[in-house]
Here is the input.
Amino acid sequence: MALFDYPQGFNVFLRVNFVSGGPQPDSEGFIFTGNEGTMQIGAGGAAILSDSNRDAVTVSGMRHRPDPGYQIDSWAVATQKKFLEEYRQKNHLPQPPGPPACKESFVAPANYSDSLDHLKNFFAAVRSRQPVVEDPVFGFRAAGAALLSNVSYEQNGPVRWDPEEMKLL
Here is the structure.
């Protein structure tokens, strides 16, 4: 398990068990959870996934509504209702019909291969001698979380990383 704290005010928690490694429905993917909803990339959440097409992104969220938020969920239901009623009256807000949810899924076309696209971009860049977005720095940054997890494991403690200089602190 790895926990990454970012100075922008968010955390990333990663967990790997080295067992899945394959085509099981819940074996791979990412779920990003925020205060406005979730974004799931890969297997496990989208019912539209099939064995031949696992490249899906599902975004689920709550549209903003003029309530004080969900920090009152631990209160008794009667207390929540009274608080929200007083809040809406004080702020001249209408009574909402309920929490409006939204959910969208995006699926890659059938037989799409991101590996094939990656190789095509690489060979096109070699032939044209033009720079690519996915250069060595991009690759190093992409592998950074896994590399830092390994260093942290070997040192048996947290590590600090300077993303601009790309070196340990």
Notes: Confidence is low (pLDDT under 50) at residues 45-53.
